Amino acid sequence: MRKVILQLHLIVALAAGVFIVLLGVTGSIMAFEPELSRLQHWEIAHVKPHGTPLTLDEIGDAMRKASPKQDIRGYVLSDRPDLSYQVMIERQLVYVDQYSGQVLGRISGGMDFLGFVHQLHLRLALLDKGREVGETTVRWSALAALFLLISGVYLWWPIKRFGIGGSARTAKFWFDLHNSFGIVSLVFVFLLVVTGLVISFEAQTTPFLYRISHSQPLRWPRLQATHVLGQSLITPDQALATARATVPGATPFFITVPHGNQVYQIFLRYPEAGPREDEPESLLIRTMGAS
């Protein structure tokens, strides 16, 4: 049995290794997406802080002067004084200096490098007719990674070898390196693979998890703004003030601008205690009316 498992371990590693490495590399890039996005668009993503930031109404007025025919869809607020605000218009993301109202640059809605990495990670960048093939390949690659982890533990267990011996020119060195690195990183890689599988098979796993936890998915009420004669619409700044008062301690970072009978949607986050304090716990506040 041990020989059979060893052969399967080697065959699966050779067959799925390229895809597993691809998932690992693209996943690592996605983990640093905010930092890479700022680096990619450095000149327009950074500003020199001076004075007090303009209100969203003032930024909106500056944006309308620069693009009079484009409706504003939303605002992205920066969490650092040296990062610029972003204004969402149709198929464009406009970077604006929140201290002067100057338009710094625009990003069109087409797929950029980070968007390509996302598609590569999820479906091997195969779109349209090849989308299902790409997603299926990624799922099977994740399953192959899970098999490699389980079979690797089975093969390592009788020996329980730690440490690396020999020189880099010998097969023993690479065998020991493989064993030691694999067992040390086992828990972390196992969590990544299992959670990735849950996401990949969410059509099956989501109903199962709700069933075993005896819970129901969150259903947002369908809210529509009701116009009252003589009542004026609240401004984006008033909507932000409502959100801040509703959830003290949370920081708004994204607000959508309603059109027609839509309502404001404000996303807020609580800073996590730890080295990555910019990772948000997102909360959605919906507000409508004149107050």
Offer a few descriptive terms.
single chain, 291 residues, alpha+beta, seven-stranded antiparallel β-sheet
Task: Tell me about this structure.
With 291 residues, this protein is of the alpha+beta class. Among the domains are: 2-33 and 113-213, no CATH class; 236-287, no CATH class. It is 49% helix and 15% strand. It contains ten helices and seven strands. It has helices spanning 2-31, 33-40, 42-45, 56-66, 113-123, 131-156, 171-184, 186-200, 202-213, 236-246, and strands spanning 72-76, 85-89, 92-96, 103-108, 251-256, 264-271, 280-287. A seven-stranded antiparallel sheet has the order 4-3-2-1-5-6-7. A hairpin with an 8-residue loop joins strand 6 (264-271) and strand 7. Helix 1 (2-31) runs antiparallel to helix 5 and helix 6 runs antiparallel to helix 8. The protein is elongated. Residues 273-282 have low confidence and may be disordered.
